[in-house]
Amino acid sequence: MTEEAxxxxxxxVGCGAAVLMDIRNVSLRFGGVKALRxxxxxxxxxxxxxxxxxxxxxxxxxxxxxxxxxxxxEGEIWFRGKRRPPMKPHTIARHGIARTFQNIALFRGMSxxxxxxxxxxxxMGLGLLSHAIWWGWAEREEVQHRERVERIIxxxxxxxxxxxxxxRLPYGLQKRVELGRALAAEPTLLLLxxxxxxxxxxxxxxxxxxxxxVNDEFGTTIALxxxxxxxxxxxxxxxVVMDYGRKIADGSPQEVRNNQDVIDAYLGVxx
Amino acid sequence: MFYREAGEFSTSYRDDAQTFPIAFDRRRYYxxxxxxxxVIPFFINDYWANAVLIPFLVWSMAALGLNILTGYCGxxxxxxxxxxxxxxxxxxxxxxxxxxxxxxxxxxxxxxxTALVGVLFGLPSLRIKGFYLAVATLAAQFFFxxxxxxxxxxxxxxxxxxxxxxxxxxxxxxITGPNADSAVKYLFCLAFVVGFAWIARNLTRGSVGxxxxxxxxxxIAAEIIGIDPYRAKLSAFxxxxxxxxxxxxxxxxxxxxxxxxxxxxxINQSFLVLFMIIIGGLGSxxxxxxxxxxxxxxxxxxxxxxVGGLDWDTAIATHFEFVIVGGxxxxxxxxxxHGISQLWxxxxxxxxxxxxxxxx
Lengths: 271, 360
What we know:
The complex is a heterodimer. Chain A is of the alpha/beta class.
């Protein structure tokens, strides 16, 4: 796995591929606090793009800008070659961007199956009336989508907990269900906010394998925030490093690792 | 033991998603329906119909409606009484303005009008949550009681300020009015409630219900995965008000026959329905029925025991009822916030294994 991951930056995935999302000079302020200052980078089709940086660097704000939860005061976001006007998060979800959250944000009153089925909501279009009648359209739609969801359940190896309310599941499995819910939307761009936070080594290995498989099998472009440097260096094709709301480095894991600014940001410099 | 699950396998996703996946459950449900439609009407008397069964059905309908809004979508409402009044007065106006209109359509149209009004009063939910929303819906409650008192057009300028249901027939049988037979009234309500419970189940089992529950459980995550919160909340308000409006129409037209708005649809009714779904179980269809049965049957039972059996004073018995209801609500909120339906679920889980609890 490591070898394959190491090969990735040079095997052409990402390097020559088209740009999926281009973030141009984005600045985001909350009153006097500047969360993002003039950040620009791109995400190419089919790559795994990591965003790293110390606490408070603006990584989560960046993801929130990408999926429309925050609207930047300055800058543009280009998605699939078009400039994206300001949109509500639920509209952006319909354009093929899905995400997971740093703190698990599952629907606790629902089962694993229902949580993942909810992930397909952007692809289900029937109205109240057909649901009220159920027979016919609504039932057929439900079964069709159930088949897709079962494939995700198989992929993530969570068949035994299908009907379990998610509140009862251990942390690692909850994270996996959340990944399933995001995958159910069949996104073009998948945003993962600290997918490994709080996991033990074994759980991290499992999840890393799932992330690589998602990228390989479904061709999903992935942007992830992660603090575990081993994971970041192994998984990602290219890395953006942020500090104090600014981008301080951008490049392959090797380049970033040797960058003096990055080392300074993480280790601190005497002033 | 009581649940024989051995040998029951779902071989399609359709089977797996049915309401009662266990055959035993399914058969019991059909049995209840068969008894409800085929046996009870022949043995029913006026006391049972008017004191127990019809109020139970009408309140079940209201509880189903509020449960969709509060239990499934997480939006607290204290306006149930007001929306029932909208249903009742719409039904009355339709019945008197269009005497030829079939009573079934009158009731359904009354529901539709209430749904529109409900969506209107649901608009604040787009901005405010929790207690603040509850207060906004409380405004609806007081507004409608005031409106139906102050504007004589709504009660057709009658001297008493009451509205009286004129006689309407269905297939030649009187459904409303003083000549309606109690068995017929019971069957009519039962048909409505069974139909609407089925609709409630359908709405909550698919993507519509999931979008409501997602908003209830975590609204920000719901929005980010693609649920339009406005649409989800307003549809919950609309559907819920439809149910509540129909229950108001049945309450007025079938159950009481004549109502005066302050008495019949006051704030007490809003709380009564809220207590029903809290005790019965939030976010559960069965819970709506269990809660309605509990709140309707308990006073009857207490009255029979305390006044009839122990010779207590009626006033003391009534006050004792408040004590018991209050105590039970506190009990449920502390011990079992998911209500009777959760207790029922636990009992079923236990019965699956009984008498060998370690035999999986």
